[in-house]
Amino acid sequence: MNIERALKVEGFMHEKELEYLASLAQKSKAIMEVGSWSGRSARAFADNTPGLVFCTDTWADNAYGSAPAEETCIANWLWSAFQRNVGYLNHVFSWRMNSIDGAAKAIAHGFTFDLIFIDAGHEYEDVKADILAWRPLLREGGILAGHDLYPDGPYHPGVLQAVNELVGKYTVHGTIWSTEGA
Q: What is the architecture of the domain spanning 4-180?
């Protein structure tokens, strides 16, 4: 398992969470990451999968004001950061669009995935829409997972609500929720 390069990418994923994602990637030949930001978790997937990684994001999110102050266009800064971190890898495919359009594209091309990781919008309606849109693209026995679930904390209550309503049984690793065969 290799997360050295992932740890060098700016982001909000903790080391233990990256290790968990890397372990999932080792068993997955087709991964879809919904919401990639600058590529920290995408790098953990890319460096550990024997297959392909697809990343769907608009790359237009300032994520809590973390963009450099001198940047005038966050979308270009974020897209450039992602490209520097993982976009050049020949087994990583970037779909620059919102998550629902990404799911429609995957359906149109007949894609299915061993692992779908949801980390885009964190409001209830966004997470609900993402789970409903992407779950049908999960291969039998695949893993549906996501980030920023805080069962005992005040952060991102919409993630907790949507996952509890739509996923049912899941395990938590740090702030990552996951379920097999969703």
A: 3-Layer(aba) Sandwich (3.40)
